[in-house]
Design brief:
Blueprint: E1 3-6, H1 16-35, H2 49-52, H3 55-71, E2 74-78, H4 85-95, H5 99-102, E3 107-111, H6 117-127, E4 132-137, H7 144-161, H8 163-168, E5 170-174, H9 180-188, E6 191-194, H10 208-216, H11 221-235, H12 243-256, E7 261-266, H13 272-286, E8 294-299, H14 308-313, E9 318-325, E10 333-334, E11 350-351, H15 352-369, E12 374-379, H16 384-404, H17 415-426, H18 432-442
Parallel strand pairs: 2-3, 2-4, 4-5, 5-6, 7-8, 7-9, 9-12
Antiparallel strand pairs: 1-12, 10-11
Helix pairs in contact: 1-12, 1-16, 3-10, 4-10, 4-13, 11-16, 12-16, 13-16, 17-18
């Protein structure tokens, strides 16, 4: 089975009758999703997207990716939040975090995801003198981080190849018909791709938002979508064996027992950005109305040497969800060392993945003894198919979990607060009244 939710290490933290008790609420959540009559139901375009996606656009995405791979050394993807995390997460999970260094051909870099001048300067240095293309991604078309990075990158591109050729190298993923970016793209003749109205940023990785960078990285988007489609068929059915719903139920049972933090963990560093994507998905979906499970993440065994102490013996406020990837992309056989000078021959004559697995098993037992509930998501490997499968699993689980928590899992009103203050402090027209008030507070 591609993705399997397991409670085998949960021990006595949740009893089966607690799943039985919460299940009617899961049924209600499922019914609301399917009937599209729950909170935020304007944003359910993701639910059957792996089946109903725009096939004509999908073909254009493949063609654009092939062109970029043929005519560019570098693709710079400018976007933030939902317009950034999913693409990078899939590329790094499937191809590895060092794909740019290990493979010949197109290099992919992400920017527009901070306001750091150092970061943007480094991206410019990467592009200078190279054949590069830009994929600017913004549903609203007005996000400051993305727009600023794009303005600077576009200038460099036009300086290097001229405005006409630059227009052939800029790909804009944005709203179908409105917004500053869409207007600019139409005026300049950039090829455009659509962020559907009914798909929120954190659910957009399987639209052009994620698919163009993923395809440009040389990953089969057919396989990603097939994985998601098979996952959709499985997790859209209500039943006690629906693992996505069982995971959502387990999270909420633990939350109601005072567990306020979920740590998503994986023993594969290539999963780091998938963790970041998960944090946005669940954080923006659930963290509102003074409620929600705080989504945190660790990569083990790396973080056992930093966060391990807290998890073992600190405040008992968390549960752990381990993503157990059964098969590494590349294994490594540990050879015996003559003389055993480093004392490590007890590890020899086996694959390193076995050592990694024993570290995981030992940690699970230790953390369970330390009073931390352990959930587990098992998956065969980080192939394109299985990563697509996992994405849909998380989507279904997150939507259900948000409804169990009685929040609208599809809005993000809190994200606007910092923007309002930032614009006022920067003197953006229209924010004058707030400027003086905020400046007084900063004195
Ligand atoms: O989930 C969200 O809505 C946000 O994280 C957005 O994706 C992010 O703010 C970027 O927005 P936009 O695509 O409009 O530039």
């Amino acid at each position: 089975m591609s993705v399997h939710f397991s409670t085998k290490h949960l021990g006595s933290f949740i009893k089966e009758d607690e799943f039985t008790a919460i299940w009617p609420q899961v049924e209600t959540a499922h019914a609301q999703l399917e009937a599209k009559n729950g909170p935020g139901s304007d944003f359910l375009g993701w639910m059957y997207l792996p089946r109903d996606y725009d096939k004509e656009e999908f073909a254009r995405i493949k063609a654009a990716a092939a062109k970029i791979r043929a005519d560019s050394d570098v693709l710079v993807v400018a976007g933030i939040g939902g317009s950034y995390l999913g693409a990078r997460a899939v590329v790094e999970a499937v191809k590895g975090m060092y794909h740019n260094d290990l493979e010949n051909g197109l290099k992919i870099y992400f920017c527009g995801n901070s306001i750091s001048p150092t970061y943007l300067n480094n991206i410019l240095d990467v592009c200078r003198g190279k054949r590069f293309s830009i994929n600017v991604i913004s549903k609203s078309g007005t996000t400051t981080e993305t727009s600023l990075a794009f303005r600077v990158l576009r200038k460099l591109l036009e300086e290097q190849v001229g405005a006409q050729e630059a227009n052939q190298r800029i790909y804009a993923t944005t709203d179908r018909s409105k917004g500053t970016l869409k207007e600019l793209a139409d005026k300049q003749g950039w090829q455009t791709f659509v962020v559907p109205d009914d798909v929120g940023g954190r659910y957009s990785v399987l639209t052009a938002v994620g698919l163009l960078p993923i395809a440009a990285a040389g990953i089969s988007i057919d396989e990603v979508m097939q994985g998601a489609a098979d996952s959709m068929v499985r997790f859209s059915k209500l039943g006690p064996d629906n693992d996505a719903y069982r995971y959502a139920a387990a999270r909420n049972i633990l939350y109601r027992k005072g567990k306020r933090v979920e740590i998503m963990e994986c023993y594969e560093p290539d999963f780091t950005m998938m963790n970041e994507w998960y944090k946005q998905l669940f954080g923006e979906s659930e963290g509102k109305d003074n409620k929600g499970i705080f989504p945190a993440s660790c990569i083990f065994s790396t973080d056992l040497h930093s966060m391990g102490q807290f998890i073992q013996e600190g405040s008992r406020l968390m549960f752990e969800t381990i993503v157990d990837v059964k098969k590494p992309a590349k294994d490594l056989f540990i050879e015996p060392l003559e003389g055993n000078f480093d004392g490590l021959n007890f590890l020899a004559n086996q694959n390193m993945s076995i050592v990694n697995r024993k570290a995981m098993e030992g940690t699970i037992l230790a953390h369970t003894d330390g009073g931390v509930p352990e959930l587990m998501i098992e998956m065969d490997d980080l192939s394109a198919y299985n990563v697509g499968y996992l994405i849909y699993f998380y989507w279904r689980a997150c939507a259900c979990s948000g409804y169990l928590l009685s929040v609208n899992p599809f809005n993000q009103p809190g994200v606007e607060s910092y923007k309002k203050n930032m614009f006022a402090l920067l003197g953006k027209p229209g924010y004058e009244n707030l400027t003086a008030e905020l400046e007084a507070k900063l004195k």
